[in-house]
UniProtKB/TrEMBL annotation:
Source organism (scientific name): Bifidobacterium pseudolongum subsp. globosum
Protein name from the UniProt record: ATPase AAA
Domain of life: Bacteria
Residues covered by region (Disordered): 103-143
């Protein structure tokens, strides 16, 4: 008998042997003693093999689910929050926000004003400073 397959008695059917092989493969993931399991599988009936297969599959599924829950918890994802069911009846607009919105509206409709930084109306960068008639289209000024 090799480590990956068990002895095949002549009386065993192919499906029974396939089930036993599947159980041995699942055992690798379950960390059970392989030699003890192989000895048990050699004497097990077909219904016992089916039972063991269902048992191992359920155990593997349970471990996978536990693993996923544990990893999700370790990842510390933020809680899934929605606004469904929120009580909106006590919601009122604060007075300050109305004032701020009014200020923004006034600023948006105000006319454009010249800059008051380094480049004021008397700055050397002002093209109209040396041209009393103002900048005319097509005219060039030299400083």
């Amino acid at each position: 008998m090799t480590e990956t397959t068990m002895a095949r008695p002549a009386r065993r059917r192919a499906t029974t042997q396939a089930t036993a092989d599947r159980i041995l493969e699942m055992n690798r993931q379950l960390s059970l003693t392989r030699s003890v399991l192989a000895a048990t599988l050699e004497t097990a009936t077909a219904s016992q093999l089916e039972f063991m297969q269902r048992w191992f599959e359920a155990e593997l599924a349970s471990r996978e689910q536990s693993r996923r829950l544990r990893l999700r918890k370790q990842a510390a994802f933020p809680a899934d929050k929605t606004l469904d069911g929120y009580d909106w009846s006590n919601l009122a607009m604060p007075a300050h926000s109305v004032y701020v919105e009014a200020q923004f509206e006034r600023i948006d409709t105000a006319p454009d004003t010249p800059g008051t930084g380094d480049e004021g109306p008397d700055s050397p960068a002002d093209p109209d400073r040396n041209d009393p008639a103002g900048a005319q289209p097509g005219s060039t000024t030299t400083n």
